[in-house]
Amino acid sequence: MALTIRLRRMGTRNAPYYRLVATDSRNPRDGRFIEVLGYYHPLEQPGKVTLDGDKIISWLEKGAETSDTVNSLLKETGLLEKWARKKKGEDVSVMELKTTITERVKKRKAKVTK
Q1: Backbone phi and psi for residue 112, each to the nearest 5 degrees, phi listed first
Q2: Coil vs helix vs strand at 94
Q3: Mean pLDDT across the chain, nearest whole number?
Q4: pLDDT tens figures, 30-85
Q5: Are 40 and 101 in contact (CB under 8 A)?
Q6: Where are the chain's structural domains?
Q7: Tally of helices (H runs) and strands (E runs) in the chain
Q8: What is the pairing mode between strands 3-12 and 65-66?
Q9: How many Cα neighbours within 13 Å face the side chain of 96?
Q10: Residues pairing with 50 in the sheet
């Protein structure tokens, strides 16, 4: 069974929020999951992230892979750095995780002039 930590979409049509869940990679995006690991509210300014760091680190130690989006969220909150330091054997009890993330810069298409 290939474990994946990924986002599960919740909310209404124009007001989504996401749960970070541990699931089998073969399950559909909004299908069955094993455990809820946190929440991500992208519409709040700045975006709000609530993570259970201990649970996420335990799943990563068990061999769970992260999706690209979850990987960027974990990197921005500082959890990946905490996990890397824990693997090296350093003390991570004083590290604090960020609860908000900065808005990503949107890519703009270049105008083509004739």
Answers
A1: -100, 120
A2: coil
A3: 84
A4: 777 888 999 998 888 888 888 888 899 888 888 889 999 889 888 888 888 888 88
A5: no
A6: 3-101
A7: 3, 6
A8: parallel
A9: 3
A10: 39
Give every CB contact of residue 106 below 8 A, 6+ residues apart in sequence.
none
CB 44 within 8 A of CB 64: no
Q: CATH for 3-101?
A: 3.30.1320.10
Query: What type of residue sits at position 1?
Result: M
- Residue 85: both structure tokens together: 């330091």
Beta-carbon contacts of residue 12 (< 8 Å; ≥ 6 apart): none
Q: How confident is the model at residue 20 (pLDDT cuts 50, 70, 90)?
A: very high
Pick from 107, 103, 11: nearest CA to 48 = 103
DSSP 10-48: EEETTEEEEEEEEEETTS-TTS--SEEEEEEETTSSSEE
Q: Who has greater pLDDT, 12 or 90? A: 12
pTM exceeding the 0.90 threshold for the entire prediction: no
Q: How many CB atoms lie within 10 A of CB 111?
A: 5
